Amino acid sequence: MIASRDQNYMSPQQYLEWEEHQNIKYEYINGEVFAMTGGTIPHTTIALNLASALKSHLRGGPYRAFMADAKVGVTENGPFHYPDVVVSCDERDRQAIQFIQYPCLIVEVLSPSTEAYDRGRKFIQYRRIQTLQEYVLIDAEKISLDCFRLNDKGLWELHPYEEGDEVHLTSVDFHFPISLVYEDVQFPT
Question: Which end of the chain, N or C, is less surrounded by CB atoms within 10 Å?
Answer without folding.
Answer: C
